Amino acid sequence: MSLEPNSRRMELVRIAARLFRDHGYERSTVRDIATAAGMQSGSLFYHFRNKEEILVAVMALGISSTTEQLGEALAQAGNVEQRLAALFHVHLHSLLGENQAALEVMLYEWRSVSEAARPGLVVLRDRYEALWQQVLDEAAAAGLVKANTRLLRRTLLGSLHWSVQWYRKEGSLSVAELADEIMALALRD
Amino acid sequence: MSLEPNSRRMELVRIAARLFRDHGYERSTVRDIATAAGMQSGSLFYHFRNKEEILVAVMALGISSTTEQLGEALAQAGNVEQRLAALFHVHLHSLLGENQAALEVMLYEWRSVSEAARPGLVVLRDRYEALWQQVLDEAAAAGLVKANTRLLRRTLLGSLHWSVQWYRKEGSLSVAELADEIMALALRD
Amino acid sequence: MSLEPNSRRMELVRIAARLFRDHGYERSTVRDIATAAGMQSGSLFYHFRNKEEILVAVMALGISSTTEQLGEALAQAGNVEQRLAALFHVHLHSLLGENQAALEVMLYEWRSVSEAARPGLVVLRDRYEALWQQVLDEAAAAGLVKANTRLLRRTLLGSLHWSVQWYRKEGSLSVAELADEIMALALRD
Amino acid sequence: MSLEPNSRRMELVRIAARLFRDHGYERSTVRDIATAAGMQSGSLFYHFRNKEEILVAVMALGISSTTEQLGEALAQAGNVEQRLAALFHVHLHSLLGENQAALEVMLYEWRSVSEAARPGLVVLRDRYEALWQQVLDEAAAAGLVKANTRLLRRTLLGSLHWSVQWYRKEGSLSVAELADEIMALALRD
DNA sequence: TATGAATGAGCCTTCATTCAT
DNA sequence: GATGAATGAAGGCTCATTCAT
């Protein structure tokens, strides 16, 4: 299970991510993925045991790469405000940015993941949300946001997730501006 | 298209709503629906032209009955605060309450609706969101919430929608309490 | 089994004949017939035991009404030549004339008739072909056509039947002219 | 679209031709064809996009192989009389000979061909009929048959087509004898 | 690594037919 | 005579998956 970004497997995951996001997991066929990758459908099963394994790989990529990016952004942030802002910016760029299909699949195709595969993904998700929780707690301690940070985390993530349903990059707002505006709504005044 | 709550068609819509919510539209088969209704799969097509028509009927039920309930709640509310609260309470009860599967389907199965059927549903959804917009504008004028009400509407709805992913009614929080707490997060202080 | 031309049953047979001719027996549904007759599909089964009975009724109408017309035309014909001409004219008018769908169904849907129903139709067909045979024998005796009348009967009927595949009434030839021309090809010279 | 006679696709076409001829296209199921070929019904769709494509392939085989045979027979014919005879012999052998189901399907299942697929088949049919027209014109010029060759072509083809309805190879007449007798009826005397 | 061919279970849908009202 | 609702068998087709080459 190579994680090298250049490996054939990773390329397939990225192709699948885009298809799953655009048409849904159930409506995307193994043939679609293979065709987009320039191979026969049977060949995919050399790389993945079955279709669900592709889905899980997409989701794992989506959540873990976002976590990684958030980690880096937090490391570079100078103060609590910047750390808070990183939450919104990283999340939205991962969700709405170019070629960033994997996280969206993680959010909207959960029901297609078998019981067996969920725990592994939950671990990854919890790791990501733990970063959020930690920063929100810091921000609450600094008086930036309200104190009910557990619920705050969930509502904020819900707000951000939902943006895929209505945000259009052709509109007047850039992703960065949107991140700032949504953060502003969460700040105490 | 009888809207009488006792009609056979409406009964089928309710049964389908539950299946679509629990297993997803694509994973729910026409046979599943028929079996749950105690009939043969072919019989369904006496009531609906095809499977998608069932989905559309479920969605239309979900959004229009929620709109109706919100309308009634707003009519009975005495002041702006109560009207604001109605938004959260009605939405969450429609989403998380007993036997209330239809609205959730509306939110999470949009991609399975054909281009042809979307406009009709968009009209219903816009009607619902117009109520939200109106009450949020009133609340902003009264200083209860922040002024960016268009974005506020979208983020709040996102927050509420997401609750289906984590809220468990066996937990410590009732749906009403959750509504109050989420509202509290949105209030200026 | 009323044969009165005004009866409801006869009306249904005529409606079915047109549908069977235009779209084929297998492709025409009982619902199509019922709709064209302004009733529900279930109601048809008051008039006919099953779909095949409709087909048989259409075929019986087609062949027996043509036989009847041929009988009348032969009775009025003054000489052998006129009797010979009657064969071609009656057959083509029955096949290509307005509202004359039934005979064509008889020719092209034979395979859909069950073994059980065939003998009855064969009797009707033989009665019709017997008229042909008789007139052809007279014509051969008079030196109008060649002597191999049994084969002649079959090839001539084949020629006429095939006209439904290529004859267009919008073309330059009337049905009567076509009948004359085809007959001319069969005459000795 | 391999035309090699040994290819699996061609084998399936031949199997389908026989079924379509014996029971009709509409009454022959995809499962019937698969069973006759010793495979599962789903496997057929690896070779053909849909059922209609099988029908079109059968028809194309029927008409083009007959055209090919006629071309060869004409090339070997020494004089006009032999060329004229080739028309009848090739056509009847293709229609009534052993394992020759495809041409009959072409003649009797035309209504099941979609509008989209017709032009391609019409081209093939016209190519065949052009050979007929050419030879009939030569024969008329030589005084062998009557001058109205366009109508003659249609009536003769109709006569030959119809033979499938009544010819039984167990009878007293061989296919070759029948061809000669039908030709004799068309000759001037 | 990849392909070509096939599998087999399942899916949505159709449709002749039935029957209580 | 006719309807509305349903049946149930079957039909064309899809698709994840397998496997010899």
UniProtKB/TrEMBL annotation, chains A, B, C, D:
Residues 29-48 bind DNA. InterPro entries: Homeodomain-like_sf, HTH-type_TetR-like_transc_reg, HTH_TetR, KstR2_TetR_C, Tet_transcr_reg_TetR-rel_C_sf. This is TetR family transcriptional regulator. GO terms for molecular function: DNA-binding transcription factor activity; transcription cis-regulatory region binding. Keywords: Coiled coil, DNA-binding. SUPFAM superfamilies: Homeodomain-like, Tetracyclin repressor-like, C-terminal domain. Residues 6-66 form the HTH tetR-type domain. The keyword Transferase does not apply.
